[in-house]
Each structure stands twice: as C-alpha cells, then as structure tokens.
Amino acid sequence: MPQLAQRVGRAKPSAIMVIAEKARQLKAAGRDIISFSIGVPNFLPGDHVYEAAREALKHDSGQYGSNRGAEPLLDAFLRHIEALGFSGYGRMNLSIGIGAKQVLYNLAEAMLDEGDEICFAAPYWTTYHDIADIVGAKANVLHCGPEQNYKLVPAQLEAALQRKPKVFLFNNPSNPTGMVYTREEIAALADVLVKYPDTWIVTDDIYNSMVFDGIGYHNFVFAQPELRERLVFVDSVSKTYGMPGWRVGLIAGPESVAKAVTTLNSNHITSVPEVITAAAVAAFGGPQDVPRAKCEEFAGKRDVVFEALTAIPGVVCPRPQGAFYAFPDISVAFGKSHQGTKISNDVEFCAALLEATGVACVPGSAFGEPRAMRISYTCPTAQLKPGLERIQAFFAQLS
Q1: In sequence order, what are the beta bridge partners of 194?
Q2: Sign of the alpha-carbon dihedral angle for 121, 135, 253, 249
Q3: What distance in Å separates the CA atoms of residue 129 and residue 259, rounded to the nearest whole number?
Q4: pTM score over 0.85
Q5: Mean pLDDT by 10 residues, the chain (399 residues)
Q6: Geometric angle at alpha carbon 299, from 315 and 239, rounded to 5°
Q7: Yes or no: is domain 47-285 CATH 3.30.450.20?
Q8: Which listed CATH number (1.10.260.40, 3.90.1150.10, 3.40.50.2300, 3.10.20.30) goes with 6-44+290-396?
C-alpha cells in the first residue's frame, strides 16, 4: 500500500480544537458548559460589513481574483497600516491569504528550507511549532516564564540570534498570554535585531487593535526603520473586526517576500473571493466603533478575570494588557487531588476542571508552558463570573 508523505506524520491536530470538541460533546450531552477555550472574539462586525458583502453579491463576476489581492483591499490595508505607524509601503509590499494562519504557512514555505532554524518565544501560539515541524524547520524555543511576565528580554534574543536562525517570529500582543510589549521593550529588542542582518523578522500582530491601559501598539520597524528591509508584518480581519470565519489575512513587508507569497497563492489558493474581499475592505475602511467598543469591553473583562485569578492562593498571573487571554500559572495544583482525581500536570488539571465544573480551558503545554493554562474571556458576560467562581471553587477543593 502506498505511504503518505513524511510531513503528514509531523502534522498534529490543534490542541485547542481537541478541548473545544470535548466541551462541545459534553454540552450536547446536556452538561452546563462554560467555554474559556477557543480564541474567537465572539462578536459580529458592523452592519456596513454585511451591506458591503450584499452589494458585492449583486455585482459578483464569478471570476478568479488577484493572487496578490484586489486593489481596493490592498489600498484599504495600506491606509490601515499607515494609521498604525507603517509608512512608505505600496501595493507591491503586500499580499493576502486565507486568514493569518495560511499567510504564516506561506511565509514558512517562502523563507525556510528543510533544516533551517526558526526561533520564537514561549508561550507561543500552537501553530508556530506545528508549521515549523511540517516544513522541516528546527524550532529554537525561547522560554519566557511568568517570572519575567511571559516576555522576551534582549539577552535571550541576543543569544538566539547568535545561532543565526533564518527567521525570528514574534507575537505582540500575545496569544496565549495577553501580554503587550511597551515602546521601550520593543526598542530594546530592535536594538538587538539590527545587529543580525541575516535573519528574517516576522511580527504576527493580529491583535494590534486590542491593546489596553494606554500602552499602544509598537513594532520593531518603528524603532529601527532599517529593519523594514527584512521585516514582515502580519495582520487579519479576524480578531479586530469579529470576522474569524471570513478568513482574510494580509502581510506588509519587502517586495521580494510579498512576491513570493503571491506566487505561492497562485499555486495554493488563487485568490480571496470577491464577496469576502468587499467585506474586508468595508471592515478596514468603514466605521471603527464596533472594534473600539469591544476593546473597551475586553479591558473590563480582563479586570474581572485578573482579580479572580490573583485571589486564588498560589496562582500567579501576570496582568494581561491586550488581546483577550489570561495565562495563569496553575502549578500550585500539581501533586494534589480533586475529589479523588490526582492532578500531576496541566493536561490533567484541565481535564479534571472540565469534568468536575464544566469549565473548558486549554492546557498551557499546548503553548509551550506546561505550568499554565489559557483562559479566553470572550464568552458572554453573564457566563464570565460564574465560570471564574467555578475555577476558584475547584482550587479550594484541592487536597
């Protein structure tokens, strides 16, 4: 019998979706489930986005679109990134994908040969390591624990870059921690990056509009403009605009990278459909009241989550300042039992929590930090406090 390609054996199902599926099954069986598992914003875009999609349907050509992206979408994205602080980019610096995940995969194919090294900080989004494994790259994971607020520091980055990795992948604001790098922290890391010109820099910053406490969004290229020649900025409509299912991701970077991604698109996806393109244009260029209101709402939910978690004896949770995640260190529970169920690690903790209380969280080991678990607090507001109270009660019952 013919065999599958070896790369398929390196591909793993999403740990996040495994937990989500288990929660779904329990809910279907009649259990009262509160899910803190999936990282979806759980709100819908403004009416103008749907109106643009409906109007596009009336005039749909039914034809293939541009491999790079339709010009109205590229222009809308240019205006979007200019507002963030990126200047001097044109259409030839851009390309699209079916969501940021597919864009990141295309970038890996474009930048990494078999055996090349890619480095990124842990905790990391699960897909980073998965993509590296599939394309046969070597992942150098830079561990950043709660004792350093889950943030990469210049000395760690310097040590990693001395190994001459092909790619440095960076995420700000962070999934899974919700941490945000300040202007000063970004500048300090950028000072290191300029010394290593042979490494590509990819900034996966799809939560750039979800930043709290007045910190603002900052990028290495703002601090060191010369990095623009090898830095790729990744964004999407998924989180900011409540459109994860619409699947539109984009990059801004050197023309050579944008051309490579566009060429891969011609072989992979061809184009983003017209209707979805129109919706994305409306999202970027239309009223921003929904994203602003949701950012304020998430900041308020963050306060509730942070207060509840830090009230649990022994739990350590650096204060999130963006996205919609908290990432508490729950290792105080390891070695204890809950109603006869022994808990030795994060996976057993989350399994016991779900079974006993109906609260679904994702084990931190999925993100490279087995002392923690991820809480996504985009659930309906009415479920937030009850879910947190169940977590508090679960800890109180450990023995």
Answers
A1: none
A2: negative
A3: 25
A4: yes
A5: 85 73 84 89 96 95 95 98 96 98 97 98 96 96 97 98 98 98 98 98 98 97 98 98 97 98 96 97 97 97 98 98 98 96 95 94 95 96 97 97
A6: 105
A7: no
A8: 3.90.1150.10
